[in-house]
Structures are given as C-alpha cells and as structure tokens.
Amino acid sequence: MAWYLYRLGRWSFRRRRIVISFWIGLLLLMGVASTTLQGKTSDTFTLPGIESVDAFELIKERTPDAAPDGATARVVFQAPEGEKLTSADNKKAVAESLAAIDSKNVVGATDPFETGTVSKDGRTAYSTVSYATQSIDLTDADKEALEKSPEVAEEAGLKVAIGGDALQEIPEQGLTELLGVGIAIIVLLITFGSLLLAGMPLLTALIGVGIGVTGITTATGFIDLGSSTPTLALMLGLAVGIDYALFITSRYRHEIHVGRSQEEAAGRAVGTAGSAVVFAGLTVVIALAGLSVVNINFLTQMGLAASATVAIAVLIALTLLPALLGAARKRTGWGKVPFIKAPDPEDETVGTTAGRRWADLITKHRIKALVGGLAVAGVVSIPVASMQLALPDDGTAAEGTGPRVAYDLIAENFGAGTNGPLLVVVDTKGADDPAEAVDLAAQKVQGIEKDVAAVVPPTPDPADEKAVAAYEAQLEGAQYATITVIPKSGPSDADTQALVDDIREAVGTVEADTGATVYVTGQTAVGVDISEELAKAFPKYLLVVVGLAFILLMIVFRSILVPIKAVLGFLLSVGVSLGATVAVFQWGWAADLLGVDTSGPVLFMLPLLLTGILFGLAMDYEVFLVSRMREEFVHGRPAKESVVFGFQYGARVVTAAAAIMIGVFGSFALGDEIIIKSIGFGLAVGVLADAFLVRMMIVPAFMALMGDRMWWLPRWLDKVLPNLDIEGESLARHTGDSVAGTTPERERISS
Questions:
Q1: Per the confidence metrics, is the pTM higher than 0.90?
Q2: Which of 119, 274, 622, 749 could form a disulfide with 413 if both were Cys (CB 3.0 to 4.6 A apart)?
C-alpha cells in the first residue's frame, strides 16, 4: 500500500492543476446543487416495533383522519400583573389569536376557556394546536400562520410564547464554532512556524467539509435527515480533515529537511503518513457507519453522513494536499513567524525534545504511570453509574427562547408534567365488553399514586347524551379508547420515565381479564422505549465495530496485544467522556460555564453516538502514535527504545492534532443547541482523555512494561494475515533505501 500511495502522492504533485481543478469544481457543483435541491430536516425519533410507536400506528389505522404523532404547538398566553385572561377584552384577544392559526394542516386548536387550561389565578392559559402531519411536512403557510398568531394578543398587552415541535428550528453555526477554527490556526502556526504550511491543512479541511455538508444538504431534497446531521458532519469533517492533512504535512516537512526534492518528499509523505491516515480514517468510517446496526433512522443517517465526510477528508489529504504542495513548490516557508521555533521532531541536532523527556519519564516510572492513569480514569468515570437518558424537550432549550419560555410558564402554572402527558390506548377489538375493558384500564391507572397529577378517562358525563353516544360509537367503530395521564414531574425526569413502567405494570392484567390490549404512548414513552432499545442494541454495536476494528488493527500492527490494549484504552476514554458529561449536564457541576441553563437526563442517543465517534478518533491516535513505534521496532530498535523514539517522533504532531480536535469540539460545546452542545462537550473531553491520558501516558507505560511481548504474533497467524505495509517496507525496496524490512527482533517475536 505504501508504494501505491507514494505513486499517488507524486502523481498528484505533478498533476496539481487537474487535482486542484477537480476538487474545486466538485465543491462548486455541490454548492449549486445544495441551493437548488435542498429540502427540510426533521428531528422525529421513531423506531418501528416498539409499544409506543405501535400505539400511534393503531390510532392511524382505525381512524385515518387522526394524527397522533403529528406536529403540535403549545401557545401560552399570560396577562399583565393585576389583570386576568378571563376579562372580556383579553378573552377576545386570545380567541382572535387562536383563530389566526388556522391553516391547511391544522386539525384543531383547543379553547383554554372550554378545556379548563387556565391557571388558578386567571393570568395564564395555554392552547394545544394539533397538526395533520409531522413538523417536517408543515408548509411555510402553516408555520407563518403560527408565528404571526400572537400579534393580536401582544397588541392587547398579553405575553405570548409558542412551544412544541411545530416551529422546530434548525441549528445554525455561529461565532462560537469559528473559535475552533481560530484555535486550529494557532496550533498549526506553532507546529509549522509558517503561514503557508499552517494554512494548507486548514484549507483542505474546509474544502472537504464544504463538499460533505453541501452534499448532505442536497440529500435533504430526496430523503429525511435530522437537523443535527449536517452539524455533526461539519464538526467531525473539520476536526479529522485538519488532523489528517497535519500528519502528512508534518512528514513532508521532515522529508524536505533530510534533503528530498519537493516531489519526492510529497510522495514519501503520502506513502508513509498517508498509510496511517488511510487506516485511521477507515476505523472512523467503520465506527460511524456501524451505527446503522442500531436500526434507528436518525442515528443511521448521522453515522453514514459523517462517515462520508470523513472519507472525503481522507481522499483530499491524499490528493489535494500534495497538489497544493506542488503548487507552492519552494514557497512553503512563506510567512514564517519569526518568534516561533518549529523544529522537525526527528532532527536530533536540536537537542532533547519535550516528547523525548516525557517518554523517558513514563517508561522509567511505567508502573506508577500506569496505575496513576488508570486511577484518574476510574474516578472521572464514576458518574456513569448514575446516568439517566431521555429525549430532548423544550425544557432543555436555550433560556429566553420561545419554546423554553412556553415550557416554563406551563410548568410554573400547571405543573411540569403538563408539558409531557402520557397517553394510554385501550384496544378493545378483542374484548367481549369494550366499555368494561376501558373502565378497568382506567381504574388500574387511577390506582397509581406515585407521580400522577391527574387521570382523564375517556368516559363522558352520563348526563351528556351526545358525548355518551359519540363515545359508544367510537368503541363500536374505531374499537379503541384513550386515557390521558398527567405526571407530576417533567417529561425528561426520571420519575416520569419510571411512571411509564408503572402504568404498563398496572395494566398488564387487563388483557387476560377482558381481552383488550393496552398500550402506553406519548413522546415521553417513545423516549423510554427508544432508550431501552438502544441499551439492547449497544452490545451488538460494540461487537460489530470493535470486532472489525480489532481485526484491522491486528493486520496493521501484526500483534495480538496492541489491538487489545487499543480497545481497552478506548473504553477508558469513553468512561471519562460520559462521566464528565453526566457530571455537567445531569448533575449540573460547572454547568454555568458552558451555558447549560437546566440540568437533566443525558440525551438518549449520546452514549452510543459518543462511543462510535470516540472509537474512531481513539484509533486515530493509536495508529498515528503506535505505528511510529512499530516502524522503529521493525527497523531494528529494541522494544523499549522503539516506544521512546516512536513517541518522540510522533508526540508533537499527535499533540497538535488533539489540541485542534479539542478546540473544534469545544467550540461547538459553547453553542446554544443542547444536542450539539452535549456532543461537542463529550467529544472534547473524550479526545482530551484519549490523547493525553490514555495514548500518551497509559499506552507507553504499558508497552514499556510488556517489552518484546507487545509485538508477539503466532507465526501461523503472521502468514495468514495480509501484509498492508504500514511501515513502508515496500516503499523502501522500490526506492532503494537501505532499510531492513524484517529484523531479528521481529523474527524472534513472531516465532
């Protein structure tokens, strides 16, 4: 592989105009396509085959005009201090505002004065607006009518806030994300000391991200994608794009330093560092694409989109970067910063580097370093034991936004549970006495005392003959009835999640007693069901992704212990990442520093998403750092010395790469959107732990402790596994370098 990549690097260097024109042309083409074909995004979380979703399907099947999972909006009105909404003028203003909401897809808007959704002091009321379609399918006219509806009430002096998913906003990138780019520029300048060399990794990364994100935006015109999908692709594409180009550029500078020509240096940089980039990128792609095994559309889309962006970053690093180096020729030192010294880590004339001193310290005190690193990782991971998962809701929206104001007003005046009612659906199709089955189900639910604020059974007032007739007709025709349960706690609270299980347990005997089937649904129940399904799918995901990566790493490093150590180190990084995330977002520790207004359960998909992304990134550092150690080992150095020298040569560039990733991910953690904020924070902490605690402390300590045994591989397995040549042995043979391909150490360890 090294030889083919070497040839690709030299070809790109020579055919720079063709290569640069291709990538720029593709960027422009995707940009035009995204502006003309762009569609809408949706954050609807569904998973076929779970109880809560089956209940929605039952309602739609029996009553086709109903839309139980359609978009909803909650319009909250509040009168000024000293006034009441029940006054004639205010009541009229509320009615006119609700009438203005009427549009094509509106099923109905409840009248708070008829439904009783007016607070005890008479100042606050809310109306629930139901739509026939999900938020992604709402027309511009639907949304415009909803947005303008408060105007009449506001002119009358009322405060109006709109919550729910009908006005679902798409996360936008702001100034905080530019902070990550700024950090990347500073790190690259310190690493290379030249404006031109520092700018190349950033330029190639931005082109790759531009192609990836515009491609995803174009895809929204054909398929439904989550609103966070482009942002995740941007986050990952920018981070890995800079890092991959950084590794190749660093190797190019070294080859120039030892006297190679520009074209030869570009070829060798792509042939050596490029091999590590290919396998590092492949592990990231495997980890992200592996999210599809969970069978949740939202996660599958995010994983595939992000993995495609990473693949583009790899291709650009292997082709566009050497083409740009060819265009720059001898001007790569242009823009040299006079006060920054950026020596080649492999230049032994500059004296002992910080990386060498650190490697000597760790290998000398390897047992203490190993135990200390494990202890730190274990302590930070403790909060994971109390982690709670939930769907995001308006209660986690940024403070001051419409959804958050509406949520808080309802919680303060009607109870937090009013923001997330549960729906109990009684399927009476198999019941001998449908009315009796519904009554029994209602009694079972009403018997639950913990965390139940109110139960609204479907049975009408016997004195209301029309209501009774309609109820009986529904039982006879649609053959189902619904019971509404208002919890005391908020939608994402642990008590509400427990209530879902309590209701299911309470109504568990209804089918045996009456023949009716009872379902518990609602957005909170959907979140509980999806979280449970994720927990079931998680072992399968780990088995597939970790298993494939283990095989890949065993082929790359030709060792049994290296991939085992890599996987165990990754688990430590995930533990630290999730532990810190729970401490900040669930426990509220230092939440104010990140702008987290309200602590609560962790985003339901975060553990799986962080695991997938961090696994790929952890393998990045494993490949980049340990491949350099292996290169030293197979070229003749003893095992302990190969750790020290490999660390010395690779530490500077790995440190720079990690700093860039932390800066990029950390900048997203400063945004307002809670999903992106939690993902950015978790990834920043995970990279910090993996790069500096695991790969630069625990790994070298463990490898020094194991010595030659680290590179042991059974001879029969060595013959079976393909030789992917990540150390560049084939390149050395083709170019005539006097570098041994197989040393006595390797022969002995393989025996």
A1: no
A2: 119
Per-residue CA distances from 123 to 83, 118, 379, 401 (Å)? 7, 8, 49, 21
Q: What CA–CA distance (Å, rounded) separates 711 from 706?
A: 9
Contact, 132 vs 94, CB < 8 A?
no
Contacts 24+ apart (CB under 8 A), 143-146: 143/167, 145/100, 145/101, 145/102, 145/103, 145/106, 146/73, 146/101, 146/103
Which has the closest alpha carbon to 249: 19, 7, 9?
Answer: 9
CB 290 within 8 A of CB 549: no
Q: Which of 717, 661, 559, 692 is nearest to 184 (CA)?
A: 661
Q: Is the distance from CB of 178 to CB of 84 less than 8 angstroms?
A: no
For 140-204, the DSSP string reads: HHHHHHHHHTHHHHHHTT-EEEEEESTTPPPP---HHHHHHHHHHHHHHHHHHSBHHHHHHHHHH
The whole-number pLDDT of residue 749 equals: 45
402-528 and 66-164 share a CATH fold: yes
Q: Which two tokens stand for residue 45?
A: 């979380």
* CATH architecture of the domain formed by 66-164: 2-Layer Sandwich (3.30)
Contact in structure between 492 and 391 (CB atoms under 8 Å): yes
For the chain, which residues make up each domain, given as ranges? Answer: 1-37+172-386+529-732, 66-164, 402-528
Looking at domain 402-528, its CATH class is alpha beta
The total number of residues shown for the chain amounts to: 751
Q: Which residues of the chain have pLDDT under 70?
A: 37-48, 168-177, 220-228, 332-335, 339, 341-351, 724-730, 732-751
